[in-house]
Design brief:
The chain has helices at about 15-25, 50-60, 80-100, 120-130, 155-165, 180-185, 195-205, 240-245, 275-285, 290-295, and strands at about 5, 30, 65-70, 105-110, 110, 140-145, 150-155, 175-180, 210-215, 215, 230, 255, 260-265, 270. The protein is α/β, with parallel strands linked by helices and about 300 residues long. Strand 13 and strand 14 form a beta hairpin. The longest helix has 21 residues, at about 80-100.
């Protein structure tokens, strides 16, 4: 089981620190941003401590990791040409950085049409992807399934399939299946998981699912809100998520936790990463209703 979480990258150790964090959780894969997800400020590649990170990965038995593009990249913006130009240029840079770090997968939120309608946003997303992808691009872009809040594009498998249809080098495209987003978009992975998987297979191909984001949801199905919850404490539930994690076609792809930190009841400025404990719980296959309390006591 390839199971890990989002980890940070900052300070002097940078990418090497990311690997250390993943190993501290008992993970054998992980997801990282190449810099802060909210902005375009990035350290140069030679400052990321990549050789040391690779050494630590080899020692720790980690062979696979994925990179997530920053949220500010909006390829779907048909309104502001400067914002769109920046998104395309920065996506090209993120592809280069992902390759330099040694990953072949960059996860991307497809984009938002900012009120101009799906067709207008779709046209810009396809154009942007056609600008950055070539036959020789060494990194695949994994389009993330979205919850459908606001003007997000990618709230259905059909919308993602339309992006595939328009991209010339769509062999460079993959899918990131986010359990919370899929639930909030309206897909019933609790009671009809096989039907959901059949649908994504028919429209996109299960072989193209390259990453699974494993998140419970604070919201009921079809809420279109995208609020993650800790594993087993939301409306999807532990055992439904476990079925997704153990789904045979997903056996050899990274399953990445993006669940919320547990806040201290005594100090709102302090919170604790749940990933070590969630990974242990998933591996055991048994839900622990006292998990949050145990994290605070650890």
């Amino acid at each position: 089981m390839l199971l890990g979480s989002h980890v940070g990258m900052n300070g002097k150790e940078m990418f090497a620190g990311s690997v250390k964090e993943a190993l501290s959780y008992g993970a054998n894969t992980f997801m990282v941003y190449t810099g802060a997800p909210q902005n375009t400020r990035r350290k140069s590649i030679d400052e990321l401590c990549i050789p040391e990170a690779h050494r630590l990965m080899k020692e720790g038995g980690i062979e696979t990791f994925v990179v997530h593009a920053p949220y500010i990249i909006n390829l779907g913006n048909p309104v502001n040409s400067e914002t769109y130009k920046l998104a395309v240029e920065f996506l090209a840079i993120e592809l280069e950085r992902t390759a330099a770090m040694g990953s072949d997968t960059l996860i991307l939120h497809p984009g938002s049409h900012v009120g101009e309608g799906f067709d207008a946003g779709l046209e810009k997303i396809i154009s942007g992807l056609n600008n950055v992808l070539t036959a020789d691009t060494p990194v695949n872009i994994a389009l993330e399934t979205m919850a459908g809040k606001g003007s997000e594009i990618g709230r259905s498998f059909e919308e993602l399939a339309k992006i595939y249809d328009g991209v010339k080098y769509n062999d460079k495209l993959r899918i990131c299946f986010d359990t919370c987003h899929v639930n909030d978009a309206g897909y019933d992975i609790v009671n009809h998981m096989d039907d959901v998987m059949d649908e994504i297979d028919s429209l996109l191909g299960l072989k193209n699912v390259a990453v699974v984001h494993v998140n419970d949801s604070k919201n009921e199905r079809s809420a279109h809100k995208d609020r993650h919850e800790n594993i087993g404490f939301g409306t999807i539930g532990f055992y439904a998520l476990l079925r997704v994690i153990n789904y045979e076609p997903f056996e050899n792809i990274p399953k990445i936790l993006e669940t919320p930190y547990i806040p201290s009841p005594d100090n709102k400025k302090i919170s604790y990463a749940p990933y070590k404990y969630e990974i242990q719980m998933i591996k055991s296959g048994i839900f622990d209703p006292m998990l949050k309390e145990k994290i605070l006591l650890a």
